[in-house]
């Protein structure tokens, strides 16, 4: 398995199961169930493909790794392309499944896309949405960079990262549906169309800011263990 294919499969899994839990099972499992589905999907992929690609499955993570000096930009770009492709494929498969339900409409029921404002979950404003996504991505990428550092116990990294994603979802689903991952937002939004595409900029820009911030903190060595 190539690293790019691993990133494609990993991102496909995260979006298909995570967004699928909201679209197909959301009324039965609620926010808590959706939160755990995203986190558990990430944990599974971390141990399934982590040895191949590092299981970034998120352009923000790849960007954070570049800023931290752990990855070349040329490889990160290839990762990002594979990640977005995986998210698009997952959203398409999810849409095909959801369309099999008689009363499903992507315009009415959505595809697990992120958003904010009137008519979307808690109806938080754009400033709240932007702050949440930037801060949550910063914390998420910081945990990832810390948990995968040479000083951290390697066997625990996937579990720690997945549990962090669960915690972020538990707090933020009502605000934005939680992105912290541009690929996860792009896939469903392109098929949901309309309003989702119009709001997509936030779920690209805010995670970029958060990821760059986390990468810069790690690059400075402020979180390195001291003798």
Summarize it.
With 227 residues, the chain is mostly helical. The protein is 73% helix and 0% strand.
Overview of this protein structure:
The protein is mainly alpha-helical and 227 residues long. It has a single domain, classed as Glycerol uptake facilitator protein (Up-down Bundle). It has 9 helices and no strands. Helix 1 packs across helix 6 and helix 5 runs antiparallel to helix 6. The longest helix is centred in the first third of the chain and has 51 residues. It is globular, with a radius of gyration of 17 Å. The mean pLDDT is 96.
Question: How do the helices and strands line up, and which of them pair or pack?
Answer:
Blueprint: H1 3-53, H2 59-67, H3 73-98, H4 106-109, H5 126-147, H6 157-176, H7 182-192, H8 195-198, H9 202-220
């Amino acid at each position: 398995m190539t690293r790019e294919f691993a990133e494609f499969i990993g991102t496909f899994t995260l979006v298909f199961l995570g967004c699928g839990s909201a679209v197909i099972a959301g009324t039965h499992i609620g926010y808590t169930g959706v939160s755990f589905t995203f986190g558990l999907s990430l944990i599974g992929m971390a141990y399934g493909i982590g040895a191949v690609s590092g299981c970034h499955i998120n352009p923000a993570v790849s960007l954070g790794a570049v800023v931290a000096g752990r990855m070349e930009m040329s490889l990160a770009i290839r990762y990002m392309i594979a990640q977005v492709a995986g998210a698009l494929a997952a959203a398409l498969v999810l849409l095909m499944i959801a369309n099999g339900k008689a009363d499903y409409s992507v315009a009415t029921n959505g595809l697990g896309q992120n958003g904010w404002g009137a008519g979307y979950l808690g109806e938080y404003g754009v400033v709240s949405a932007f702050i949440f996504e930037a801060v949550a991505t910063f914390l998420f990428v910081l945990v990832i960079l810390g948990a995968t550092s040479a000083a951290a116990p390697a066997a625990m990294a996937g579990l720690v990262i997945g549990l962090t994603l669960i915690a972020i979802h538990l707090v933020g689903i009502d605000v934005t549906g939680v992105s912290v991952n541009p690929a996860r937002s792009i896939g469903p939004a392109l098929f949901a169309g309309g309003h989702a595409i119009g709001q997509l900029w936030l779920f690209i820009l805010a995670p970029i800011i958060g990821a760059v911030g986390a990468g810069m903190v790690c690059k400075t060595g402020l979180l390195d263990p001291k003798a």
